Amino acid sequence: VLSADQSKPFSLVTFHLGTGNGEYRPIPDVVADKQSLGIFASAGARIFEPLSVIVNWTGSNLATGVSVAPFRRFPIVAAASLIGWTHPGGQQLRGVFSVAYADSVLADTFPINIFK
What we know:
The chain is mainly β. It has one helix at residues 27-31; strands spanning 13-20, 38-48, 51-57, 62-68, 76-83, 94-101. It has a 6-stranded antiparallel sheet with strand order 1-2-3-4-5-6, with no helix packed on it.
């Protein structure tokens, strides 16, 4: 959190870092079927509420995107991304669009709270 006032531009930045096998391996290891670990990472910044930008590294592929959470009190997010900036394995740049709903099963506002 860069600012206590979440409504200010650039008030929130997130970073994620991890390691994994499978799709997170470098392309030469995937092609050679070599078992190894790769590093994945993500960074996001809220430009202004409700718009954020995101950069992801999957271990062999770079993706960039934007997300928008249009409703302050309804947890739905739409995102558009371009994946394949590094052209792993000869892949072309491609677009992805998603819509997600997020809520906590522990929250009193969750439609079906099984923990009550």
